[in-house]
Amino acid sequence: MTQTATGRWAGCTLLILAMATAGTIGCGSGSSSSTGSTPPTTPPAASTAVLVNMGDTPSDSVLECAVTVSAMSFTNTSGTSVPVTIASPMTMELAHLRGTVAPLMMQSIPQGTYNAMSITLSSATVTSMTSSHSPAQQVFSTPMTVNIPLSTPLTVGSNAMVMNLDLNLSTSVGTGSGGAITFTPTFDASAETATGNASATPEQGGMMQLVGNVTGMSGSTFTMGTLQGMSMSLATGSNTQYQGMNGQTMSNMGMMSRGQIMTVNATLQPGGTWTANSVTAMMGSGGVMSIGMITATTGSPVTQMTMFPDNGIGAGMMASLLANGMTVNVGGSATYGIDDAGVSMSGLSITPQFDASHMAAGQNIAAASSGGMSSGGGMMGGGMMNMGSMTAAGFELEPQGLSGTVANASGSGFTLSLPSGSAFTLLTGASSVTVYQTSQTQMKGLTAATNGQNVAVYGYLFFNAGSYNFVAMQIASM
Question: What is the Cα–Cα distance from 472 to 400, expressed in whole angstroms?
């Protein structure tokens, strides 16, 4: 299964608005009569699509961080506040993005220059690992408004823009008296112009593993809705790749059906439209898909697991339940795949494997079921709510992020030494992972990884014979 964004969450990144909509300039016309003429009116400012992405600046101690956005506005250089329309609160889990971003919303805003913005979080749920190797959770329900100065002003012209909001988890999440979790959100923000290139990064509008279900089809275009409530219209073409998962075979757009669960890689165009680069059918209408990190497994091969959802879609899946625990049973004839659309796994010195015998705590996966998710109840320990259970007919390994220090660097990769207090280390017991680079690995803020350097990696985590190996899609300097 496939899943698929500067204010960054150095602990939770937030990359938002991208929907460039051409505004219509109305011109007043004078009319003459015996009583005089009507004075000319001022034409309204043209508007352009802005994609708002959210993400995080990674924090080693945070396992999950879900925030609910209830209000947002931009302030132009004249001091006028331009509110963003949010019909209902939108919830995103940010910690799993680990230095990259994902779409929160798209909206058309008036052209002009903006030097500040404001965002209100109506609630937040933070889960971290304790020294006793168990997760602990804290829910913050008091609204929090954060004013964010834009050191580099956002200039909205005729081309679609991407606004990236990064929640800095390291500075936002702390520990209070008695070990209680504290949350004081701080954001970094940056903006980029949508390039329209298929190789665009998420910060430039190149979205990866967008998760949703099909809400409509017309010609070569389809619409998709996300768990956060965002609706997207995506154009397909001769370069769009199609694939199926868990029996959902797919070779072209004509095989889509309303309600079908999809993962899409897409690119925002300068004109504000979306182009689908790859489309993967995950499950049919009436099913459910949950994406998140495995926190515990039962059996070898694995027959059951506990996971913390950070995204998903379908029957019984609600945004309000993100970052809480759920139980996933492994179906007897379950299928397995790797969400590697556009990423080559060839030429590696290891053979990437993902199935019930190569599944472990710490991996980010997607689990899909043809039936809905059963309702939960009670608590799972650490103050976490049990959101429910499902029996999955298909699993897919999804991208995820880790951060640490480079050791044993070579042209093909390095050893990533993990902080002793990191959530991943406390969860899995692993003090390091072996990172492999490919010809497609993107470097961000560095040309090559060198020993002693602190980096964040984003890609695929494999487990074999008690060891973790990581195939990097991106390596970023920290």
Answer: 9
Query: Mind listing the pLDDT tens digit for each residue in 234-266?
Result: 999 999 999 877 667 788 888 899 999 999 999
Distances (CA, A) of 60 to 11, 132, 323, 476: 9, 16, 16, 15
> Are residues 276 and 344 located together in one domain of the fold?
no
6 in a structural domain: no
Asked whether residue 29 is assigned to any structural domain, the reply reads: no
Beta bridge partners of 367: 290, 395
- Using alpha carbons only, give the angle 92, 98, 101 rounded to the nearest 5 degrees: 55
Specify the pLDDT at position 188. Answer: 93
Across the strands, what pairs with 431? none
Q: How many domains, the chain?
A: 4
Residue 89 lies in a domain: yes
Calculate ∠ Cα 285-290-295, nearest 5°: 160
Whether 388 and 424 share a structural domain? no
Q: Among 169, 193, 217, where does a domain finish?
A: 193
Q: Which of 193, 264, 160, 145 is nearest to 6 (CA)?
A: 193
Alpha-carbon distance of 163 to 325, in angstroms, equals: 31
Per the structure, the complete domain to which residue 464 belongs is given by 401-477
- Report the phi/psi class of residue 19: left, alpha or beta, with left for phi > 0 and alpha for psi in -120 to 50: beta
Output Rg (C-alpha) for the chain, integer angstroms.
23
Same domain, 227 and 245: yes
pLDDT digit string, tens, across residues 319-373: 877 878 889 999 888 999 887 765 778 888 898 999 999 999 999 999 999 887 7
Where are the extended beta strands (E) located within 322-445?
325-338, 364-369, 374-375, 386-397, 400-410, 413-417, 432-436, 442-444
One-letter amino acid of 320? S
User: What is the pLDDT averaged over residues 305-311?
Assistant: 90
- What is the tens place of the pLDDT at every residue in 135-171? 778 899 999 999 999 999 999 999 999 999 999 988 9
Overall pTM > 0.70: yes
Query: What is the SS3 assignment for 204?
Result: helix
Bridge-based pairing state of the strands 467-477 and 442-444: parallel
Give the position of tokens 């949703």. Answer: 212
Mean pLDDT (the chain) is 85
Which CATH number covers residue 425?
2.40.50.140
CA dihedral 226, 244, 343, 291 (to 10 degrees): 40
